[in-house]
C-alpha cells in the first residue's frame, strides 16, 4: 500500500488512541506480566486492543466508556449475545451447586441428547474444552478406527492449534507451490516438521485435485477434515457437488470424513451437514454449544465412537474439565433457546446484512464481494469470484485492516479480517446502525480504494 493508505490509516489510528487512554494504560500494564500483553493472539491488533468492561446483549462497552455493536461475538461463539438472562441464571444456579465434580452428572446427558438428536452424523458424543481439543480427538479416533496415520485438509482450513493442524492455515501463496502440488507450510514457529509429514493439503472446492490426492495416498490416509464453509479463510462457501464428491470418494477408499462444525453448527439446528444434506462420519463442535463458556465436542457413528467406551479399554480420553458443570449448564440453556425460530432470526438478519451490504457497494460504485451463508459473512476487497483460500489471499487484505479500525472508531466491532456474525440479541435496528456506519466508512475510504485498488471501483 502507498502514501494515501498510510496517511488515512495514521489518522484513524491516532483517533483510536485518543479515545482509549484507559485501554492504553491497561495494555501497558498487561505487557508487564504477559508477552505483548496478550494471552490470545486472535484478539490482539495494533496499536493495542481495547479492554472491555462489560457486554450487554448486542453491545460491549470498553474501559473508556466506548460502546460498540459487537459483530464478532467472541469469534462467533455468543449466539445469544452478551449476558443472556437464561444462560446467566443457569450458570448462577449451577455455581451454587458446585463448579466441578469428579463424577458424571445429568446435565452432560441432557446437552448430549440435544446434540445427538439434532446432528444427523452423531450417534454418540464426547466433550472436551475447545474446538482444538475436539479436532485433536477426532483425528485420534480416525487413526485408531482405520489403522492409518495421514490426514488430508484444505489449504486455508483452520482446525485449531495442535501441530498436525497448524499446516497451511494462512500461508504465503508465493511460497506455497502450485495448486497441483501444494507445499505444506507450518503456521507457526515451533510446529514439528515430523507432524506435518502426515499432512496432505488440497485446494477447497476442487474436485479434480482432491481426487488425485486421495487416489495417490488413500492407503495411508485415515481422514479428510474440512470446514463445510471455510471460516477464517473468509467464509468461503462450498459447491454442494464438491461436498457430495468428498462423501462418495472417502467412503470408497475407507477414509473417514470429518466435518469441523465448530463455527458452522449455527447454520441450522443440525449444522451445515443438515443444510447441505451431506453427512460425515465424525463431527466436531464448539463455540455456540457452550453458551459462551469453554467447550468442545466430537461425535459420530456408533461403531467409531465406541472405541472411547471406557468399558472396552481401547482408547483413553480424560481431562479435568471435560463436560464441566458450568459449560454443561450454559450450553444446555443456550441450545434449548437455539431452536428453529432462533435459527431463522439470525439467518434472516444475516441475509439482510448481505443484501444491504451489496446495496452499499452499488451506491458507492464498488466492485467487491461479501461471502458467507446464514448468519456469518465476510467483506472481501476483491472483484472476482471467491472459491478457495488463494482467492482471498490475493485480495487487498490491508484495506480490511483499515476498515476495521475505522468501524471501531465509530462504534462497530467486526473481525479484522472482515467477518461479521449475527446473534439473537440483535434486531434489525442494530444492523441498520452498523450498516450506516459501514457505508460511511467505505465512502470515506473511496479515495484510498481508488488509489490503491482501482479495479474495485466500477
Explain what this protein looks like in three dimensions:
With 458 residues, the chain is α/β, with parallel strands linked by helices. The protein folds into two domains: 3-79 and 339-456, Aspartate Aminotransferase, domain 1; 85-337, Aspartate Aminotransferase, domain 2 (3-Layer(aba) Sandwich), CATH 3.40.640. It contains 17 helices and 16 strands. A hairpin with a 4-residue loop joins strand 2 and strand 3. The longest helix is centred in the C-terminal third of the chain and has 25 residues, at 340-364. The chain is globular, with a radius of gyration of 22 Å. The two termini are 20 Å apart.
Q: What is the strand arrangement across the widest sheet? A: 4-12-11-10-9-5-8
What is the mean pLDDT?
97
For the record, what is the CATH homologous superfamily label of the largest domain?
Type I PLP-dependent aspartate aminotransferase-like (Major domain)
Q: Write the CATH architecture name of the largest domain.
A: 3-Layer(aba) Sandwich
Low-pLDDT runs: none
CATH topology of the largest domain: Aspartate Aminotransferase, domain 2
Specify the oligomeric state.
Answer: single chain
Shape: globular
Helix fraction by DSSP (H/I, runs of at least 4): 40-55%
Amino acid at each position: 500500500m502507498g502514501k494515501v493508505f498510510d496517511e488515512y490509516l495514521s489518522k484513524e489510528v491516532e483517533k483510536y488512541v485518543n479515545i482509549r487512554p484507559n485501554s492504553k494504560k491497561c495494555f501497558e500494564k498487561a505487557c508487564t506480566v504477559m508477552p505483548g500483553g496478550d494471552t490470545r493472539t486472535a484478539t490482539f491488533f495494533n496499536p493495542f486492543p481495547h479492554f472491555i468492561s462489560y457486554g450487554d446483549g448486542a453491545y460491549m462497552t470498553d474501559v473508556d466508556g466506548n460502546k460498540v455493536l459487537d459483530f464478532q461475538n467472541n469469534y462467533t461463539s455468543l449466539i445469544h449475545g452478551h449476558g443472556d438472562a437464561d444462560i446467566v441464571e443457569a450458570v448462577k444456579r449451577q455455581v451454587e451447586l458446585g463448579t466441578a465434580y469428579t463424577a458424571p452428572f445429568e446435565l452432560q446427558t441432557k446437552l448430549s441428547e440435544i446434540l445427538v438428536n439434532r446432528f444427523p452424523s452423531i450417534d454418540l458424543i464426547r466433550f472436551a474444552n475447545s474446538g482444538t481439543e475436539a479436532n485433536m480427538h477426532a483425528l485420534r479416533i480416525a487413526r485408531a478406527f482405520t489403522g492409518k496415520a495421514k490426514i488430508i485438509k484444505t489449504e486455508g482450513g483452520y482446525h485449531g492449534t495442535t501441530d498436525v493442524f497448524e499446516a497451511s492455515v494462512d500461508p504465503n501463496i508465493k511460497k506455497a507451490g502450485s495448486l497441483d502440488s501444494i507445499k505444506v507450510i507450518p503456521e507457526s514457529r515451533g510446529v514439528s516438521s515430523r507432524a506435518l509429514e502426515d499432512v496432505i493439503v488440497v485446494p477447497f472446492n476442487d474436485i479434480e485435485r482432491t481426487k488425485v490426492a486421495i487416489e495417490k495416498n488413500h492407503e495411508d490416509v485415515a481422514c479428510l477434515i474440512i470446514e463445510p464453509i471455510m471460516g477464517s479463510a473468509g467464509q468461503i462457501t462450498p459447491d454442494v457437488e464438491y461436498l457430495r464428491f468428498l462423501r462418495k470418494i472417502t467412503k470408497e477408499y475407507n477414509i473417514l470424513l470429518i466435518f469441523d462444525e465448530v463455527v458452522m453448527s449455527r447454520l441450522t439446528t443440525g449444522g451445515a451437514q443438515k443444510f447441505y444434506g451431506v453427512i460425515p462420519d465424525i463431527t466436531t463442535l464448539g463455540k455456540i454449544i457452550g453458551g459462551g463458556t469453554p467447550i468442545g465436542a466430537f461425535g459420530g457413528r456408533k461403531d467409531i465412537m465406541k472405541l472411547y467406551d471406557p468399558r472396552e479399554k481401547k482408547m483413553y480420553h480424560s481431562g479435568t474439565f471435560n463436560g464441566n458443570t458450568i459449560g454443561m449448564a450454559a450450553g444446555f440453556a443456550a441450545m434449548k433457546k437455539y431452536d428453529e425460530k432462533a435459527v431463522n432470526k439470525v439467518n434472516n438478519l444475516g441475509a439482510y446484512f448481505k443484501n444491504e451490504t451489496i446495496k452499499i457497494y452499488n451506491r458507492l460504485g464498488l466492485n467487491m464481494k461479501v461471502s458467507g451463508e446464514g448468519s456469518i459473512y465476510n467483506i472481501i476487497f476483491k472483484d472476482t469470484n471467491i472459491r478457495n483460500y488463494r482467492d482471498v489471499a490475493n485480495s487487498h487484505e490491508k484495506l480490511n485492516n483499515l476498515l476495521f479500525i475505522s468501524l471501531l472508531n465509530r462504534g462497530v466491532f467486526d473481525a479484522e479480517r472482515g467477518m461479521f456474525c449475527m446473534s439473537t440479541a440483535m434486531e434489525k435496528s442494530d444492523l441498520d446502525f452498523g450498516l450506516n456506519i459501514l457505508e460511511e466508512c467505505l465512502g470515506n475510504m473511496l479515495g484510498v480504494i481508488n488509489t490503491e485498488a482501482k479495479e474495485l471501483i466500477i
